[in-house]
Design a protein that fits this description.
Number of helices: 14
Strand content: 15-25%
Number of domains: 3
Shape: globular
Distance between the termini: 65 Å
Radius of gyration: 29 Å
Largest sheet: 6 strands, mixed
Number of strands: 20
Length: 545
Amino acid sequence: QVRMDPRNKGVDLDSLMYSKINGLTEQELKKQEADYIYRYRYNGGGATQVWLSSGRFVVIDLSAGPCTYGKIESEEGSVSYRSMPRLSNIIFPRGLAAPSASSTQDIFVGQLAGLISTTIEHVIAPDIRFETVDMTLRLLVPIIVLQNHNRYNILQAGHNNSIDVKAIEREVKKMVHAGQEVIVISGSHALHEHEKLAVAVSKAMRSHSLHETKSDGRFHVRTKTYLDGAILKEEMERSADVLSAGLLEVSDPSLSSRFFLKQHWMDEQDNVQDSIKHKPIWESYMPRNKKEKRGAGKKKHGAMYRTYGTRVIPVFVLSLADFDAELMMEEESLVWTSKDVVIVLEHNNKMIPLSYVSETTRQFAYPSLAQRHILAGLASAVGGLSAPYERASRIHERPIVNWLWSAGCHPFGPFSNSSQISQILQDVALRTTIYARVDAALRKIRDTSESVQSFASDHLKTPLGEPVKGNKNKSSTELWVEKFYKKVTTMPEPFPHGLVERLEEYLDRLEEQLVDLSSLLYDHRLVDASQNSSDILQSTIFTEQ
Protein backbone atom coordinates (compact mmCIF):
# COMPACT_ATOMS: atom_id res chain seq x y z
CA GLN A 1 0.00 0.00 0.00
CA VAL A 2 2.90 2.35 0.66
CA ARG A 3 4.25 1.75 -2.84
CA MET A 4 0.78 2.27 -4.37
CA ASP A 5 0.21 5.58 -2.54
CA PRO A 6 0.09 8.32 -5.23
CA ARG A 7 1.31 10.83 -2.65
CA ASN A 8 4.65 9.02 -2.54
CA LYS A 9 6.48 10.75 -5.37
CA GLY A 10 9.75 8.91 -4.82
CA VAL A 11 8.52 5.51 -6.02
CA ASP A 12 9.80 4.33 -9.40
CA LEU A 13 6.92 2.24 -10.81
CA ASP A 14 9.09 0.71 -13.54
CA SER A 15 11.47 -0.68 -10.93
CA LEU A 16 8.55 -2.49 -9.26
CA MET A 17 7.96 -4.46 -12.47
CA TYR A 18 11.46 -5.21 -13.71
CA SER A 19 13.81 -4.81 -10.73
CA LYS A 20 14.25 -6.45 -7.37
CA ILE A 21 11.82 -5.09 -4.80
CA ASN A 22 13.48 -3.92 -1.62
CA GLY A 23 11.96 -4.31 1.82
CA LEU A 24 10.01 -1.61 3.63
CA THR A 25 11.65 0.63 6.17
CA GLU A 26 10.34 0.89 9.72
CA GLN A 27 8.65 4.19 8.92
CA GLU A 28 6.98 2.69 5.85
CA LEU A 29 5.76 -0.28 7.86
CA LYS A 30 3.85 2.04 10.16
CA LYS A 31 2.01 3.50 7.18
CA GLN A 32 1.38 0.15 5.50
CA GLU A 33 -2.09 -0.72 6.82
CA ALA A 34 -3.66 2.54 7.96
CA ASP A 35 -2.27 5.44 5.98
CA TYR A 36 -3.46 4.68 2.43
CA ILE A 37 -6.29 2.31 1.41
CA TYR A 38 -7.24 1.56 -2.20
CA ARG A 39 -9.70 -0.72 -3.99
CA TYR A 40 -10.49 -1.71 -7.57
CA ARG A 41 -13.66 -1.11 -9.58
CA TYR A 42 -13.64 -2.94 -12.90
CA ASN A 43 -15.45 -0.72 -15.41
CA GLY A 44 -17.35 0.98 -12.59
CA GLY A 45 -18.57 -2.22 -10.92
CA GLY A 46 -18.41 -3.14 -7.25
CA ALA A 47 -15.33 -2.35 -5.14
CA THR A 48 -13.07 -5.39 -4.84
CA GLN A 49 -9.49 -6.56 -4.49
CA VAL A 50 -9.82 -9.60 -6.82
CA TRP A 51 -11.16 -9.52 -10.38
CA LEU A 52 -11.16 -11.30 -13.72
CA SER A 53 -9.12 -9.70 -16.44
CA SER A 54 -9.98 -9.67 -20.12
CA GLY A 55 -7.06 -12.04 -20.77
CA ARG A 56 -6.12 -15.44 -19.39
CA PHE A 57 -5.31 -14.30 -15.88
CA VAL A 58 -6.96 -13.10 -12.70
CA VAL A 59 -5.74 -10.44 -10.28
CA ILE A 60 -5.45 -10.95 -6.52
CA ASP A 61 -4.11 -7.92 -4.64
CA LEU A 62 -3.53 -8.77 -0.99
CA SER A 63 -2.51 -5.19 -0.20
CA ALA A 64 -5.79 -3.71 -1.41
CA GLY A 65 -8.91 -3.35 0.66
CA PRO A 66 -10.17 -4.85 2.82
CA CYS A 67 -13.44 -4.91 0.87
CA THR A 68 -16.92 -5.78 2.06
CA TYR A 69 -19.74 -6.69 -0.31
CA GLY A 70 -22.59 -9.16 -0.60
CA LYS A 71 -26.33 -9.46 -0.17
CA ILE A 72 -28.16 -7.57 2.55
CA GLU A 73 -29.53 -9.72 5.39
CA SER A 74 -27.90 -12.84 3.94
CA GLU A 75 -24.64 -14.33 5.16
CA GLU A 76 -24.15 -16.78 2.29
CA GLY A 77 -21.24 -15.80 0.09
CA SER A 78 -20.66 -12.40 1.68
CA VAL A 79 -17.13 -11.02 1.43
CA SER A 80 -15.54 -9.36 4.46
CA TYR A 81 -12.07 -8.54 5.73
CA ARG A 82 -11.72 -12.17 6.85
CA SER A 83 -12.32 -13.55 3.34
CA MET A 84 -8.81 -12.70 2.14
CA PRO A 85 -5.42 -13.26 3.79
CA ARG A 86 -3.94 -9.97 4.98
CA LEU A 87 -0.30 -8.97 4.76
CA SER A 88 -0.67 -7.18 8.08
CA ASN A 89 -0.81 -10.57 9.80
CA ILE A 90 2.68 -11.26 8.46
CA ILE A 91 4.10 -7.82 9.12
CA PHE A 92 2.53 -7.39 12.56
CA PRO A 93 1.91 -10.86 14.08
CA ARG A 94 0.00 -9.61 17.09
CA GLY A 95 -2.98 -10.93 18.97
CA LEU A 96 -4.12 -12.52 22.18
CA ALA A 97 -2.27 -15.75 21.49
CA ALA A 98 0.90 -13.97 20.35
CA PRO A 99 1.71 -16.58 17.68
CA SER A 100 5.22 -17.29 16.58
CA ALA A 101 6.56 -16.19 13.23
CA SER A 102 6.51 -19.72 11.83
CA SER A 103 2.88 -20.40 12.76
CA THR A 104 1.83 -17.03 11.33
CA GLN A 105 3.54 -17.90 8.07
CA ASP A 106 1.83 -21.30 7.95
CA ILE A 107 -1.60 -19.75 8.57
CA PHE A 108 -1.01 -17.20 5.82
CA VAL A 109 0.08 -19.87 3.32
CA GLY A 110 -2.95 -21.98 4.22
CA GLN A 111 -5.33 -19.07 3.66
CA LEU A 112 -3.64 -18.28 0.35
CA ALA A 113 -3.95 -21.91 -0.75
CA GLY A 114 -7.66 -21.85 0.11
CA LEU A 115 -8.08 -18.68 -1.95
CA ILE A 116 -6.37 -20.29 -4.95
CA SER A 117 -8.55 -23.39 -4.58
CA THR A 118 -11.69 -21.24 -4.58
CA THR A 119 -10.42 -19.44 -7.68
CA ILE A 120 -9.96 -22.72 -9.54
CA GLU A 121 -13.45 -23.94 -8.56
CA HIS A 122 -15.24 -20.74 -9.58
CA VAL A 123 -13.19 -19.33 -12.46
CA ILE A 124 -10.68 -21.71 -14.05
CA ALA A 125 -12.64 -24.99 -13.85
CA PRO A 126 -16.20 -23.98 -12.88
CA ASP A 127 -19.36 -26.04 -12.99
CA ILE A 128 -21.28 -26.46 -16.25
CA ARG A 129 -24.67 -24.77 -16.19
CA PHE A 130 -26.16 -26.34 -19.33
CA GLU A 131 -24.68 -29.44 -20.96
CA THR A 132 -25.68 -29.35 -24.61
CA VAL A 133 -24.32 -31.81 -27.16
CA ASP A 134 -24.12 -29.53 -30.18
CA MET A 135 -22.88 -31.04 -33.44
CA THR A 136 -24.54 -28.51 -35.74
CA LEU A 137 -22.62 -26.52 -38.31
CA ARG A 138 -24.57 -23.30 -37.84
CA LEU A 139 -25.74 -21.28 -34.86
CA LEU A 140 -28.58 -18.83 -35.41
CA VAL A 141 -29.23 -16.21 -32.72
CA PRO A 142 -32.28 -14.06 -33.52
CA ILE A 143 -32.62 -11.07 -31.18
CA ILE A 144 -36.36 -10.41 -31.10
CA VAL A 145 -37.42 -7.12 -29.49
CA LEU A 146 -41.05 -7.12 -28.35
CA GLN A 147 -42.18 -3.64 -27.33
CA ASN A 148 -45.50 -2.19 -26.24
CA HIS A 149 -44.60 1.41 -27.14
CA ASN A 150 -43.22 3.57 -29.95
CA ARG A 151 -41.08 5.88 -27.81
CA TYR A 152 -37.73 4.40 -28.86
CA ASN A 153 -36.23 1.31 -30.46
CA ILE A 154 -33.20 -0.25 -28.79
CA LEU A 155 -32.05 -1.66 -32.16
CA GLN A 156 -31.52 1.86 -33.51
CA ALA A 157 -28.09 3.26 -32.79
CA GLY A 158 -27.52 6.69 -31.36
CA HIS A 159 -29.27 6.75 -28.00
CA ASN A 160 -28.48 5.54 -24.50
CA ASN A 161 -30.64 2.41 -24.71
CA SER A 162 -29.15 1.10 -27.95
CA ILE A 163 -27.67 -2.40 -28.15
CA ASP A 164 -24.70 -3.25 -30.35
CA VAL A 165 -25.65 -6.40 -32.29
CA LYS A 166 -22.21 -6.63 -33.94
CA ALA A 167 -20.48 -6.59 -30.54
CA ILE A 168 -22.77 -9.38 -29.32
CA GLU A 169 -21.97 -11.42 -32.43
CA ARG A 170 -18.22 -10.98 -31.87
CA GLU A 171 -18.49 -12.24 -28.30
CA VAL A 172 -20.65 -15.24 -29.27
CA LYS A 173 -18.18 -16.27 -31.98
CA LYS A 174 -15.47 -16.50 -29.33
CA MET A 175 -17.45 -19.19 -27.48
CA VAL A 176 -17.92 -21.60 -30.42
CA HIS A 177 -15.35 -23.81 -32.09
CA ALA A 178 -13.78 -23.14 -35.45
CA GLY A 179 -15.95 -24.27 -38.34
CA GLN A 180 -19.27 -23.42 -36.71
CA GLU A 181 -20.97 -20.49 -38.41
CA VAL A 182 -22.63 -17.87 -36.20
CA ILE A 183 -25.35 -15.57 -37.51
CA VAL A 184 -26.95 -12.94 -35.25
CA ILE A 185 -29.98 -11.15 -36.66
CA SER A 186 -32.34 -8.71 -35.02
CA GLY A 187 -35.84 -7.41 -35.48
CA SER A 188 -38.46 -5.42 -33.62
CA HIS A 189 -42.12 -6.38 -33.22
CA ALA A 190 -45.04 -4.58 -31.62
CA LEU A 191 -46.31 -6.67 -28.75
CA HIS A 192 -49.96 -5.81 -29.45
CA GLU A 193 -49.64 -7.37 -32.90
CA HIS A 194 -48.86 -10.76 -31.34
CA GLU A 195 -51.81 -11.64 -29.18
CA LYS A 196 -50.41 -14.87 -27.77
CA LEU A 197 -47.13 -13.24 -26.77
CA ALA A 198 -48.94 -10.37 -25.04
CA VAL A 199 -51.07 -12.86 -23.13
CA ALA A 200 -47.91 -14.79 -22.18
CA VAL A 201 -46.32 -11.65 -20.71
CA SER A 202 -49.47 -10.93 -18.73
CA LYS A 203 -49.63 -14.49 -17.39
CA ALA A 204 -45.99 -14.38 -16.30
CA MET A 205 -46.47 -11.38 -14.01
CA ARG A 206 -46.09 -12.39 -10.36
CA SER A 207 -45.76 -10.56 -7.04
CA HIS A 208 -44.19 -11.30 -3.69
CA SER A 209 -43.93 -9.56 -0.32
CA LEU A 210 -40.78 -7.84 0.90
CA HIS A 211 -39.91 -6.86 4.46
CA GLU A 212 -37.80 -3.73 4.38
CA THR A 213 -36.34 -1.56 7.12
CA LYS A 214 -37.34 2.09 6.78
CA SER A 215 -35.90 5.20 8.39
CA ASP A 216 -38.10 4.72 11.45
CA GLY A 217 -36.26 1.48 12.23
CA ARG A 218 -39.27 -0.76 11.67
CA PHE A 219 -40.01 -3.49 9.17
CA HIS A 220 -42.48 -2.56 6.48
CA VAL A 221 -44.18 -5.04 4.16
CA ARG A 222 -44.21 -4.10 0.49
CA THR A 223 -45.54 -6.02 -2.50
CA LYS A 224 -43.20 -6.15 -5.47
CA THR A 225 -44.10 -7.27 -8.98
CA TYR A 226 -41.70 -9.40 -11.00
CA LEU A 227 -41.69 -11.33 -14.27
CA ASP A 228 -41.45 -15.12 -13.97
CA GLY A 229 -39.13 -16.29 -16.74
CA ALA A 230 -40.02 -20.00 -16.53
CA ILE A 231 -43.73 -19.36 -17.04
CA LEU A 232 -43.04 -16.84 -19.79
CA LYS A 233 -40.81 -19.33 -21.61
CA GLU A 234 -43.43 -22.04 -21.41
CA GLU A 235 -46.08 -19.74 -22.87
CA MET A 236 -43.83 -18.35 -25.61
CA GLU A 237 -42.06 -21.57 -26.56
CA ARG A 238 -44.19 -22.40 -29.57
CA SER A 239 -43.70 -19.01 -31.21
CA ALA A 240 -39.90 -18.83 -31.03
CA ASP A 241 -38.93 -20.43 -34.33
CA VAL A 242 -41.77 -18.79 -36.28
CA LEU A 243 -40.42 -15.35 -35.37
CA SER A 244 -36.87 -16.54 -36.09
CA ALA A 245 -37.76 -17.73 -39.58
CA GLY A 246 -39.66 -14.53 -40.28
CA LEU A 247 -36.79 -12.34 -39.12
CA LEU A 248 -34.35 -14.29 -41.24
CA GLU A 249 -36.50 -13.91 -44.35
CA VAL A 250 -36.75 -10.15 -43.80
CA SER A 251 -33.07 -9.72 -42.92
CA ASP A 252 -31.63 -11.64 -45.87
CA PRO A 253 -33.79 -13.90 -48.07
CA SER A 254 -30.71 -15.82 -49.25
CA LEU A 255 -30.05 -17.01 -45.69
CA SER A 256 -33.45 -18.69 -45.42
CA SER A 257 -32.52 -21.53 -47.75
CA ARG A 258 -29.28 -22.11 -45.83
CA PHE A 259 -30.82 -22.21 -42.36
CA PHE A 260 -34.26 -23.62 -43.09
CA LEU A 261 -35.53 -26.09 -45.68
CA LYS A 262 -38.60 -25.21 -47.73
CA GLN A 263 -39.86 -22.61 -45.29
CA HIS A 264 -43.15 -20.97 -46.15
CA TRP A 265 -43.78 -19.77 -42.66
CA MET A 266 -46.57 -17.34 -43.52
CA ASP A 267 -48.77 -19.94 -45.24
CA GLU A 268 -51.89 -20.76 -43.30
CA GLN A 269 -53.01 -24.32 -42.76
CA ASP A 270 -55.90 -25.89 -40.94
CA ASN A 271 -53.69 -28.23 -38.94
CA VAL A 272 -51.98 -25.98 -36.38
CA GLN A 273 -48.91 -27.64 -34.86
CA ASP A 274 -45.59 -26.65 -33.39
CA SER A 275 -43.08 -24.73 -35.43
CA ILE A 276 -39.75 -26.22 -36.42
CA LYS A 277 -37.49 -27.39 -33.64
CA HIS A 278 -33.75 -27.76 -33.94
CA LYS A 279 -32.33 -31.24 -33.47
CA PRO A 280 -28.82 -32.68 -33.39
CA ILE A 281 -27.57 -33.90 -36.74
CA TRP A 282 -27.21 -37.52 -35.68
CA GLU A 283 -30.87 -37.85 -34.74
CA SER A 284 -31.62 -38.07 -38.44
CA TYR A 285 -29.86 -41.43 -38.36
CA MET A 286 -31.87 -42.69 -35.39
CA PRO A 287 -35.58 -42.87 -36.28
CA ARG A 288 -37.86 -43.55 -33.37
CA ASN A 289 -39.88 -46.07 -35.36
CA LYS A 290 -38.57 -48.48 -37.93
CA LYS A 291 -41.33 -47.43 -40.30
CA GLU A 292 -39.96 -43.88 -40.42
CA LYS A 293 -37.60 -43.16 -43.25
CA ARG A 294 -34.21 -41.79 -42.31
CA GLY A 295 -33.85 -38.08 -42.86
CA ALA A 296 -37.51 -37.65 -43.75
CA GLY A 297 -38.71 -34.30 -42.45
CA LYS A 298 -42.10 -33.88 -40.85
CA LYS A 299 -44.18 -31.13 -42.33
CA LYS A 300 -45.22 -28.54 -39.80
CA HIS A 301 -47.49 -25.52 -39.64
CA GLY A 302 -46.84 -23.10 -42.46
CA ALA A 303 -45.26 -25.77 -44.70
CA MET A 304 -42.21 -25.99 -42.44
CA TYR A 305 -39.93 -29.00 -42.23
CA ARG A 306 -37.57 -30.17 -39.52
CA THR A 307 -33.94 -29.32 -40.12
CA TYR A 308 -30.84 -30.81 -38.54
CA GLY A 309 -27.92 -28.54 -39.38
CA THR A 310 -28.87 -25.41 -37.45
CA ARG A 311 -29.17 -24.69 -33.75
CA VAL A 312 -31.49 -21.79 -32.97
CA ILE A 313 -31.23 -19.86 -29.69
CA PRO A 314 -33.76 -17.02 -29.74
CA VAL A 315 -33.25 -13.97 -27.53
CA PHE A 316 -36.47 -12.23 -26.54
CA VAL A 317 -36.00 -8.65 -25.33
CA LEU A 318 -39.17 -7.32 -23.70
CA SER A 319 -39.10 -3.54 -24.03
CA LEU A 320 -42.00 -2.52 -21.82
CA ALA A 321 -43.40 0.87 -20.87
CA ASP A 322 -45.98 2.00 -18.30
CA PHE A 323 -45.23 -0.89 -15.98
CA ASP A 324 -43.94 -0.89 -12.43
CA ALA A 325 -40.87 1.37 -12.26
CA GLU A 326 -38.96 -1.34 -10.35
CA LEU A 327 -40.11 -4.29 -12.47
CA MET A 328 -37.50 -7.04 -12.67
CA MET A 329 -37.34 -10.79 -13.13
CA GLU A 330 -36.94 -13.32 -10.35
CA GLU A 331 -33.93 -13.11 -8.00
CA GLU A 332 -33.49 -9.39 -8.78
CA SER A 333 -32.23 -10.06 -12.27
CA LEU A 334 -33.04 -8.68 -15.70
CA VAL A 335 -32.33 -11.90 -17.60
CA TRP A 336 -33.67 -15.45 -17.52
CA THR A 337 -31.88 -18.25 -19.32
CA SER A 338 -32.53 -21.86 -20.24
CA LYS A 339 -30.50 -24.11 -22.51
CA ASP A 340 -32.43 -23.04 -25.62
CA VAL A 341 -33.84 -19.53 -25.03
CA VAL A 342 -32.85 -16.21 -23.44
CA ILE A 343 -35.38 -13.69 -22.10
CA VAL A 344 -34.25 -10.15 -21.21
CA LEU A 345 -36.35 -7.41 -19.60
CA GLU A 346 -35.80 -3.78 -20.62
CA HIS A 347 -37.68 -0.62 -19.69
CA ASN A 348 -36.75 3.03 -19.71
CA ASN A 349 -36.81 3.70 -15.98
CA LYS A 350 -34.13 4.96 -13.65
CA MET A 351 -31.83 2.74 -11.67
CA ILE A 352 -33.48 0.19 -9.39
CA PRO A 353 -32.02 -0.31 -5.88
CA LEU A 354 -31.02 -3.91 -5.21
CA SER A 355 -30.59 -5.86 -1.99
CA TYR A 356 -26.84 -5.97 -2.62
CA VAL A 357 -24.31 -3.67 -1.02
CA SER A 358 -20.71 -2.80 -1.86
CA GLU A 359 -18.91 -1.18 1.06
CA THR A 360 -21.50 1.29 2.40
CA THR A 361 -23.53 1.86 -0.77
CA ARG A 362 -26.30 -0.12 -2.42
CA GLN A 363 -25.91 -1.61 -5.86
CA PHE A 364 -28.32 -0.54 -8.56
CA ALA A 365 -29.72 -2.21 -11.66
CA TYR A 366 -30.10 -0.21 -14.86
CA PRO A 367 -33.09 -1.67 -16.74
CA SER A 368 -32.54 0.51 -19.79
CA LEU A 369 -29.19 -1.15 -20.58
CA ALA A 370 -29.85 -4.61 -22.04
CA GLN A 371 -26.51 -5.29 -23.74
CA ARG A 372 -24.82 -6.93 -20.75
CA HIS A 373 -27.82 -9.07 -19.89
CA ILE A 374 -28.20 -10.35 -23.45
CA LEU A 375 -24.57 -11.41 -23.43
CA ALA A 376 -24.93 -13.06 -20.02
CA GLY A 377 -27.84 -15.15 -21.26
CA LEU A 378 -26.04 -16.18 -24.44
CA ALA A 379 -22.91 -17.08 -22.48
CA SER A 380 -24.96 -19.58 -20.46
CA ALA A 381 -27.04 -20.92 -23.37
CA VAL A 382 -24.26 -21.15 -25.97
CA GLY A 383 -21.19 -21.79 -23.82
CA GLY A 384 -22.79 -23.44 -20.80
CA LEU A 385 -21.13 -20.88 -18.53
CA SER A 386 -22.26 -20.45 -14.97
CA ALA A 387 -21.72 -17.19 -13.12
CA PRO A 388 -18.28 -17.02 -11.43
CA TYR A 389 -19.97 -16.55 -8.06
CA GLU A 390 -22.17 -19.68 -8.34
CA ARG A 391 -21.29 -23.28 -7.65
CA ALA A 392 -23.44 -26.39 -7.59
CA SER A 393 -23.88 -28.07 -4.20
CA ARG A 394 -25.11 -31.65 -3.93
CA ILE A 395 -25.62 -31.21 -0.20
CA HIS A 396 -27.88 -28.18 -0.56
CA GLU A 397 -29.35 -29.45 -3.86
CA ARG A 398 -29.11 -25.94 -5.31
CA PRO A 399 -26.46 -23.49 -6.46
CA ILE A 400 -24.61 -21.76 -3.64
CA VAL A 401 -23.00 -18.35 -4.05
CA ASN A 402 -19.64 -16.87 -3.16
CA TRP A 403 -19.46 -13.22 -4.19
CA LEU A 404 -15.65 -13.13 -4.10
CA TRP A 405 -15.28 -13.40 -7.89
CA SER A 406 -18.39 -11.41 -8.81
CA ALA A 407 -16.41 -8.48 -10.29
CA GLY A 408 -14.33 -8.33 -13.44
CA CYS A 409 -14.59 -8.93 -17.17
CA HIS A 410 -17.84 -10.91 -17.28
CA PRO A 411 -21.52 -9.92 -17.64
CA PHE A 412 -22.94 -11.81 -14.64
CA GLY A 413 -24.37 -10.48 -11.41
CA PRO A 414 -24.97 -7.18 -9.63
CA PHE A 415 -21.28 -6.34 -9.03
CA SER A 416 -20.19 -6.60 -12.66
CA ASN A 417 -20.47 -3.87 -15.28
CA SER A 418 -18.83 -5.41 -18.34
CA SER A 419 -20.29 -6.42 -21.70
CA GLN A 420 -17.35 -8.64 -22.57
CA ILE A 421 -16.28 -12.15 -21.64
CA SER A 422 -12.83 -12.93 -20.29
CA GLN A 423 -10.58 -15.26 -22.28
CA ILE A 424 -10.58 -17.59 -19.28
CA LEU A 425 -14.35 -18.01 -19.56
CA GLN A 426 -14.11 -18.32 -23.35
CA ASP A 427 -11.77 -21.28 -22.87
CA VAL A 428 -14.19 -22.74 -20.33
CA ALA A 429 -17.02 -22.50 -22.89
CA LEU A 430 -14.95 -24.28 -25.55
CA ARG A 431 -13.96 -27.02 -23.11
CA THR A 432 -17.59 -27.41 -22.00
CA THR A 433 -18.60 -28.36 -25.54
CA ILE A 434 -15.88 -31.01 -25.61
CA TYR A 435 -16.86 -32.35 -22.19
CA ALA A 436 -20.51 -32.62 -23.24
CA ARG A 437 -19.65 -34.72 -26.30
CA VAL A 438 -17.35 -37.06 -24.40
CA ASP A 439 -19.84 -37.39 -21.56
CA ALA A 440 -22.59 -38.33 -24.02
CA ALA A 441 -20.30 -40.92 -25.63
CA LEU A 442 -19.35 -42.44 -22.27
CA ARG A 443 -23.00 -42.64 -21.23
CA LYS A 444 -23.82 -44.56 -24.40
CA ILE A 445 -20.91 -46.91 -23.76
CA ARG A 446 -22.10 -47.54 -20.21
CA ASP A 447 -25.63 -48.24 -21.43
CA THR A 448 -24.31 -50.68 -24.03
CA SER A 449 -22.10 -52.37 -21.43
CA GLU A 450 -25.04 -52.77 -19.07
CA SER A 451 -27.17 -54.34 -21.81
CA VAL A 452 -24.35 -56.79 -22.61
CA GLN A 453 -23.97 -57.65 -18.94
CA SER A 454 -27.70 -58.27 -18.54
CA PHE A 455 -27.63 -60.44 -21.68
CA ALA A 456 -24.70 -62.45 -20.30
CA SER A 457 -26.35 -62.95 -16.92
CA ASP A 458 -29.48 -64.28 -18.64
CA HIS A 459 -27.81 -66.63 -21.14
CA LEU A 460 -24.45 -67.63 -19.63
CA LYS A 461 -25.50 -70.94 -18.09
CA THR A 462 -24.55 -74.59 -18.24
CA PRO A 463 -26.67 -77.11 -20.18
CA LEU A 464 -28.36 -77.90 -16.85
CA GLY A 465 -29.35 -74.25 -16.38
CA GLU A 466 -26.83 -73.49 -13.65
CA PRO A 467 -24.68 -70.31 -13.68
CA VAL A 468 -21.17 -70.73 -15.04
CA LYS A 469 -18.62 -70.66 -12.26
CA GLY A 470 -15.26 -69.05 -12.78
CA ASN A 471 -12.75 -66.78 -11.12
CA LYS A 472 -14.45 -64.68 -8.45
CA ASN A 473 -12.53 -61.59 -9.56
CA LYS A 474 -13.94 -61.75 -13.09
CA SER A 475 -17.18 -60.11 -14.15
CA SER A 476 -19.94 -61.88 -16.02
CA THR A 477 -18.87 -60.14 -19.22
CA GLU A 478 -15.34 -61.54 -18.95
CA LEU A 479 -16.76 -64.98 -18.24
CA TRP A 480 -18.94 -65.15 -21.34
CA VAL A 481 -16.14 -63.78 -23.52
CA GLU A 482 -13.80 -66.49 -22.26
CA LYS A 483 -16.44 -69.19 -22.41
CA PHE A 484 -17.78 -68.52 -25.88
CA TYR A 485 -14.98 -66.88 -27.87
CA LYS A 486 -11.57 -67.56 -26.38
CA LYS A 487 -12.26 -71.28 -25.93
CA VAL A 488 -13.47 -73.81 -28.44
CA THR A 489 -16.81 -75.15 -27.24
CA THR A 490 -19.78 -76.89 -28.80
CA MET A 491 -22.21 -74.57 -27.05
CA PRO A 492 -24.37 -72.24 -29.18
CA GLU A 493 -22.91 -68.76 -29.48
CA PRO A 494 -25.17 -65.77 -28.80
CA PHE A 495 -23.07 -63.40 -30.95
CA PRO A 496 -21.02 -64.02 -34.10
CA HIS A 497 -17.24 -64.05 -33.68
CA GLY A 498 -16.80 -61.23 -36.16
CA LEU A 499 -19.13 -58.92 -34.25
CA VAL A 500 -17.26 -59.41 -30.99
CA GLU A 501 -13.90 -58.86 -32.68
CA ARG A 502 -15.11 -55.62 -34.25
CA LEU A 503 -16.51 -54.51 -30.90
CA GLU A 504 -13.20 -55.23 -29.20
CA GLU A 505 -11.29 -53.30 -31.85
CA TYR A 506 -13.68 -50.39 -31.49
CA LEU A 507 -13.26 -50.24 -27.71
CA ASP A 508 -9.47 -50.35 -28.05
CA ARG A 509 -9.55 -47.54 -30.60
CA LEU A 510 -11.93 -45.53 -28.42
CA GLU A 511 -9.60 -45.89 -25.45
CA GLU A 512 -6.72 -44.55 -27.55
CA GLN A 513 -8.85 -41.59 -28.65
CA LEU A 514 -9.75 -40.76 -25.06
CA VAL A 515 -6.08 -40.84 -24.06
CA ASP A 516 -5.23 -38.56 -26.99
CA LEU A 517 -8.07 -36.23 -25.99
CA SER A 518 -6.73 -35.85 -22.46
CA SER A 519 -3.28 -34.94 -23.79
CA LEU A 520 -4.80 -32.40 -26.22
CA LEU A 521 -6.73 -30.74 -23.40
CA TYR A 522 -3.61 -30.69 -21.25
CA ASP A 523 -1.71 -28.93 -24.04
CA HIS A 524 -4.65 -26.53 -24.56
CA ARG A 525 -5.08 -27.60 -28.19
CA LEU A 526 -8.82 -27.02 -28.17
CA VAL A 527 -9.30 -27.16 -31.96
CA ASP A 528 -7.83 -30.65 -32.23
CA ALA A 529 -9.62 -31.72 -29.04
CA SER A 530 -12.95 -30.59 -30.48
CA GLN A 531 -12.42 -32.67 -33.62
CA ASN A 532 -11.35 -35.64 -31.49
CA SER A 533 -14.46 -35.40 -29.31
CA SER A 534 -16.69 -35.21 -32.40
CA ASP A 535 -15.12 -38.39 -33.80
CA ILE A 536 -15.57 -40.16 -30.46
CA LEU A 537 -19.25 -39.27 -30.22
CA GLN A 538 -20.10 -40.08 -33.84
CA SER A 539 -18.34 -43.45 -33.80
CA THR A 540 -20.07 -44.28 -30.51
CA ILE A 541 -23.51 -43.48 -31.94
CA PHE A 542 -23.00 -45.46 -35.15
CA THR A 543 -21.50 -48.42 -33.30
CA GLU A 544 -24.41 -48.46 -30.88
CA GLN A 545 -26.87 -48.53 -33.77
